[in-house]
Amino acid sequence: MSLKYAVLAALLEGEASGYELSKLFDVSFANFWASTPQQLYRELERLERDGLVRARVVRQERRPDKRMFSLTESGRRDLETFAAAPPKRPTAIRDELMIKIQAMDLDGVDPEATCALVEERATWARAKLDRYARVRERLLGGRTEEEFLRRADRIGPYLTLMGGIAFEEENLRWCERVLAVLRSRAALS
Amino acid sequence: MSLKYAVLAALLEGEASGYELSKLFDVSFANFWASTPQQLYRELERLERDGLVRARVVRQERRPDKRMFSLTESGRRDLETFAAAPPKRPTAIRDELMIKIQAMDLDGVDPEATCALVEERATWARAKLDRYARVRERLLGGRTEEEFLRRADRIGPYLTLMGGIAFEEENLRWCERVLAVLRSRAALS
DNA sequence: TTGCCCATGTAACTTGTTACATGATTGT
DNA sequence: ACAATCATGTAACAAGTTACATGGGCAA
């Protein structure tokens, strides 16, 4: 139900193809709404059928044709209504690593293996933070954060990005605390 | 695929009924693996059929019968294998509020309404933190964190709880920053 | 020459959600 | 009297995942 609104919100940035949206959902949108390219293509079909989005075919040379999607007036109105209404469902998280941590104390589980998993997570978190930093610079466009937040027309995308950055930073801190604990326990035995 | 392991990991705490598991998934497990009671009942059926879990019917007076589930040896081994293997899928988050924030700059969206949504989120975050604090006290059982992390047999559940607490604290800080921004913009116009 | 990028899609399958049903007990 | 708690479940539906297919361009 909400992937619909995630797509509409993504199209606020302007016209985009399914492929471009799938890239966007891989970087910034992934922080709060996970989805695969297949889901997006399916959703776009539905949104077009329902008149919330319109498609324009762009012929390309030496590249497959692409369909550029944009919001219709009715899509925009629907999104406005959604944006002011209270959320229907609580935030859902699905993080396999945490299940593995929950079960790490089992006899058959090598603490070294657990360490490796946490280190991998930390590496990913750092990579994500790097990408966010670049997106942030682009959004700020030379202004300071304070200046931007006071004057810019659209601050929504910046506020969600702030959320993503804070989340990954916290993630990284957690990884480091866990690694410190695991290492000091390894030293004891 | 991983709800399976989330359930097995939950049963590490000991025998539990479907109902009790659904309570657990509502409090601590919800931080990293969301699921509804109906999913749990279905999953438990499957796990029993596959021999990873065994059920024992407990007759009760003045209460419906209940089925208490516990891990079998093969369930435990399966969980051990899972715990040491790298995650198959990246962490997925689905947070409606963030979509609403992303779209908040639309003309038809009242900034007051957006504020109210963020305040509600902050209230929930505080309530969650309260509950986590109680779970934490129970786990520590009077010891300090340092002492606990050095000597306890099972630290997995504490580490995931630490993650949940850090996540909610960050959430709350984000809410407060957003509210400060929204209020100072409201004062300007 | 292997593999990734662009660009879209179909089909089969697995998960997750929602609404409903039962029925006694306990608390306000 | 009404709602919540305990305790489980069915059925219908919506959403998400995985594997596969197409086919030229481009870089190491």
TrEMBL record, chains A, B:
This is PadR family transcriptional regulator. Residues 7-80 form the Transcription regulator PadR N-terminal domain. InterPro entries: Tscrpt_reg_PadR_C (IPR018309), Tscrpt_reg_PadR_N (IPR005149), WH-like_DNA-bd_sf (IPR036388), WH_DNA-bd_sf (IPR036390). Residues 93-183 form the Transcription regulator PadR C-terminal domain. PANTHER family: TRANSCRIPTIONAL REGULATOR YQJI, TRANSCRIPTIONAL REGULATORY PROTEIN.
